[in-house]
Amino acid sequence: MTLYDQSIAVYRSRINAMIGMLTKAEAHAKGDALLEARLADDMHPLATQVRFVANLPGEALPRLTSRSFTSHDDNETTIAAAKAALTETAALLDEIGADELVAQDDTIVLAIPNGMEFTMTAEEYVRDWSLPNFYFHLTTAYAILRMQGVELGKADFVPHMMPYLTKGPS
After folding, report:
1. Per-residue pLDDT tens over the stretch 112-142
2. Cβ neighbourhood burial of 26 (10 Å; 0-12, 13-18, 19+)
3. Chain mean position to CA 60
4. pTM, two decimal places
């Protein structure tokens, strides 16, 4: 499996899942107020979780390609704006060609704000840092929406599986 398949393709399809979940959230009675909901007092609200889902793929680009990315620093205040931020990241990912990515064994140094630094290969960066963080925020956003009563199920989290469907439920 190529680094592109492991990263860009995964980010892209899962952003579609997040957009789909937010589309369902738009119809919920709480509407934009859902963006303030959180799983626990010491966790980020839905708006921040969605911002991270929109930012994390872009933040990987300078490490995996020669492209730059400027993160969205502020949380969106409407579901429509949150979907627009995700759509913007999706469009950026759609522009990336598989040939733009560094080699899987290229060295990446990841410095995080608390002063810690990690050195790993590009493949290790995607597998052990970028994707786990991306999925953490995607899953947390899903859980917040479920907790708030948005009618979501597993199919909303994994809509990318539908092309593989050969037999429906009995």
Report:
1. 999 999 999 999 999 999 999 999 999 999 9
2. middle
3. 11
4. 0.94
Residue tagged 């990318």 (tokens): 160
Inter-axis angle of helices 131-147 and 46-64, to 10 degrees?
160
> What's the rounded Cα separation, in Å, for the pair 116 and 48?
23
Q: What is the pLDDT of residue 169?
A: 84
Q: How many whole angstroms separate alpha carbon 99 and alpha carbon 97?
A: 5
Contact 119, 35 (CB under 8 A): no
| One-letter identity of residue 138 | L
Instruction: Give the Å distances, CA to CA, from 135 to 13, 26, 32, 52.
Output: 12, 22, 23, 10
- Under 8 Å between Cβ of 139 and 152: no
Q: Give first-to-last CA distance, the chain, whole Å.
A: 34
Type of residue found at 60? A
